[in-house]
């Protein structure tokens, strides 16, 4: 709640929800009237703009997510600076602009998603909107449209690569399972989440993405270890395995079997060659790399033989970063990613709010599925981390963050303080309360 007792950042929050929905449903790709409308960009810019304008006009603090936030800003600054030394400055400039957009929506999410209810709404929107992508990928496979290698499904826009499709859809599975497993979730929404999870797994299987499959298994393993009702986790895991055995096509198993025999598999060997070239680029440009997004453009400079005319992506986000932004960029990226890893092992009991406990088990598995979709995954994880720090800080326990409603989960002292401020405190006491909260907020954040 704000100091006036009203929720804040309402419009910014719903624009964040619209951004998440647009990211997965990509309406501009299949709705003709929206073909020239960049819905996701408009929603993200609107959310970040409204959030920032309010902070400036109301003199409210801007939450920067500590070390992780500063690392993200540093990474964006380095990417933009790499235009000056990139092997393809025009492409690097475009990639850097996209990264700055991702940074803007990152800070918008962590500043406006400040209550368990908002976190649940955002995650629920992500799970439900993913059904559009899953159904689209399934229809393309069923109709044999634009299949990669003749059997790997994909879809529109950013989901045009089967590997990206699998990783980005896999992001929603731990969240959907967390909704399903929680008893307080209404049965209608549990049924919707169950359908969404089944469709997502089907799309991942039909993409034949080995990395997407391994990422999904890793995320679900993290969730199962954090789930207190182990029998429930075991039953869901058994159902997942039985579903794969019964419905996965033969091509899916044939492709995954090549993981053990990658020496004789062409796709795997091309990735090994891409990794070797990443090493060459890093050796030649160890400090700052070849420029953000310039890996494929630098490929002909380091490749030999027939591979010169077949540039590939790095197929490894860490090697991609060290090749494009050098060891300076890799160090910053590791700080950004690694800062969220302690949340994976954090005891679930430290999430004191029932709404947080529902989603807290699913959030840590998100980065395991897709580092590519970190603009969505990382801020969701950061929201959970921020709430944990706030609830476990005695100095802040009595003064809750703006935007949060007065609920039974709040400490008794916090409710009493809020009641005194609302029910007859003098204007001087109100001003003192506001100044005290702002000072604590700046110090603790």
Q: Approximately what portion of the residues adopt beta-strand conformation?
A: under 5%
What gap, in angstroms, lies between the N and C termini?
18 Å
Q: What's the count of strands? A: 0
State the order of secondary-structure elements, H for helix, E for strand.
HHHHHHHHHHHHHHHHHHHHHH
- The coarse silhouette is globular
Task: Explain how this protein is built.
Among the domains are: 1-62; 393-445, no CATH class. The longest helix is centred in the first third of the chain and has 28 residues, at 116-143. It starts with 9 loop residues before the first helix and ends with a helix. It is globular and about 60 Å long. 41% of the residues are buried. The model is unreliable at 347-372 and 394-445 (pLDDT under 50). 69% of the residues lie in helices and 0% in strands. The chain is mostly helical.
Outline of the structure:
Helix content is 69%, strand content 0%.
Entry keywords:
disordered C terminus; 22 helices; mainly alpha
Helices and strands in order:
Layout: H1 10-25, H2 27-30, H3 39-58, H4 66-81, H5 89-112, H6 116-143, H7 162-170, H8 172-181, H9 187-207, H10 210-226, H11 230-247, H12 250-257, H13 266-284, H14 295-302, H15 317-338, H16 342-345, H17 354-360, H18 366-369, H19 374-391, H20 394-397, H21 412-422, H22 427-444
